[in-house]
Design a protein that fits this description.
The complex is a heterodimer of chains A (114) and B (116). Chain A contains no helices and twelve strands. Chain A is mostly beta strands and 114 residues long. In chain A, strand 10 and strand 11 form a beta hairpin. The relative contact order of chain A is 0.33. In chain B, the strands form two sheets. In chain B, strands 2, 4, 5, 6, 9, 10 and 11 form a seven-stranded mixed β-sheet that branches. A four-stranded antiparallel β-sheet of chain B has the order 1-3-8-7, with no helix packed on it. Classes of the chains: A mainly beta (114), B mainly beta (116).
């Protein structure tokens, strides 16, 4: 069975400092993994995706994530946080190979302090 | 990326009435659409999968008579919440996949349903 675990429900960082949002997955096959961001009362925006190509994936707004099979991890990072990064972040794994049926992690709320 | 439009973005309805939410793929043919529900401050939970021209497949615990899903064309799926109650108040969001040859599904903007 496929599952995804976001290790931190809340993360606070100061503006200009690095961001690390942790995600571990469980999958019986080579998974597709995604990070989405949701701003308050808004829909979902895709930050980046891993689909068995390069293990270091670069996304929008300076975010990137590294797929580490040995650690079953797909942590999201950004070198320098901006106030506009404050939002809810979801790590997502596709339920079955080749489908777009997603399992969402429980989410991490990122707070950026001035 | 491809565009998925969801309508309405917000709706308030009275208890006992039905509400229909539309999900449209604007620039591609969506052979499969997914409906998710998000409770306040929680994650998204998959409700059902709909394939064009077929009956929807519901996830365990989702009442199919309560949440009617129709996917009659390659660009439109609808979710009807029947006999709505306050506990149905939630954020509903659809996603679509299809003939774009991409490696992801595309999400609508979501619908905030409030039942009073």
């Amino acid at each position: 069975a496929q599952s995804v675990t976001q290790l931190d429900s809340h993360v606070s960082v100061s503006e200009g400092t690095p961001v690390l949002l942790r995600c571990n997955y469980s999958s019986s096959y080579s998974p597709s993994l995604f990070w989405y961001v949701q701003h308050p009362n808004k829909g979902l925006q895709l930050l980046l995706k891993y689909t068995s190509a390069a293990t270091l994936v670069k996304g929008i707004n300076g975010f990137e994530a590294e797929f580490k099979k040995s650690e079953t991890s797909f942590h999201l990072t950004k070198p320098s946080a901006h106030m506009s990064d404050a939002a809810e972040y979801f790590c997502v794994v596709s339920l079955n190979s080749g489908t777009y049926k997603y399992i969402f992690g429980t989410g991490t709320r990122l707070k950026v302090l001035a | 990326g491809a565009v998925v439009s969801q309508h309405p973005s917000r709706v308030i309805c009275k208890s006992g009435t039905s509400v229909k939410i539309e999900c449209r793929s604007l620039d591609f043919q969506a052979t499969t659409m997914f409906w998710y529900r998000q409770f306040p401050k929680q994650s998204l939970m998959l409700m059902a999968t709909s394939n064009e021209g077929s009956k929807a497949t519901y996830e365990q615990g989702v009442e199919k008579d309560k949440f009617l899903i129709n996917h009659a064309s390659l660009t439109l799926s609808t979710l009807t919440v029947t006999s709505a109650h306050p506990e149905d108040s939630s954020f509903y969001i659809c996603s679509a996949s299809g003939d774009r040859g991409n490696t992801e599904a595309f999400f609508g903007q979501g619908t905030r349903l409030t039942v009073v």
